[in-house]
Write a structure and sequence with these properties.
The protein has one domain (about 1-135): OB fold (Dihydrolipoamide Acetyltransferase, E2P) (Beta Barrel). The radius of gyration is 17 Å and the shape is elongated. The chain contains four helices and eight strands. Strands 3-4-5-8-7 form a five-stranded mixed β-barrel. By secondary structure, the protein is of the alpha/beta class. It starts with a helix and ends in a 15-residue tail after the last helix.
Length: about 160
């Protein structure tokens, strides 16, 4: 169930015009630093998304060799039995330090799929600066992406697709 949810969120983000889920250019990453995740989470003050900047998602497996670099990751937030937090995607997981983290709008709970922006610490953990929910997609965009067939003719106009 969690795997399916993660895949659906990642697929939805791949259609977002300001999010690169493939790992993209470092120039776009540099342009988006500071407020990228809070912008994606709906915080419009200094919004990187409304300003046209891009968020490049880094797979968690790739962060192992990125000590000292700033990254934005998408993953499921989990808590270990000893009380520490981790973020995990389909291939890997890393510990997350949320001590000085700012949260975007919305509710974030354990097992939520979230965006986290921060720096990879020398011990391999992610020092989170900003945590937020992935941006929403409009109903019409979702319907277009899913290729919905209105077999019962419930939708009133083509604009609802």
């Amino acid at each position: 169930m969690f795997r399916d949810r993660f895949v659906q969120v990642r697929e939805r983000l791949s259609r977002h015009k300001h999010i690169d889920v493939t790992g993209g250019s470092t120039a776009a990453v540099a342009a988006a630093r500071g407020s990228a995740v809070s912008a994606a989470a709906g915080d419009t003050s200094g919004s990187a998304i409304s300003g046209g900047a891009a968020i490049t998602l880094t797979p968690i497996e790739s962060t192992r060799a990125m000590t000292g670099h700033r990254v934005t990751v998408l993953g499921m937030l989990t808590q270990t039995p000893d009380g520490t937090f981790e973020i995990e995607d389909l291939e890997a997981k890393i510990p997350v330090n949320l001590e000085h983290c700012r949260c975007g709008r919305g509710l974030v709970t354990e097992s939520s799929v979230v965006l986290i922006e921060g720096e990879i610490h020398h011990d391999g953990s992610l020092l989170a600066d900003v945590l937020g929910n992935p941006p929403a997609e409009s109903r019409s965009d979702s319907l277009k992406a899913m290729g919905v067939v209105d077999q019962y003719q419930v939708l009133k106009t083509p604009a609802e697709f």
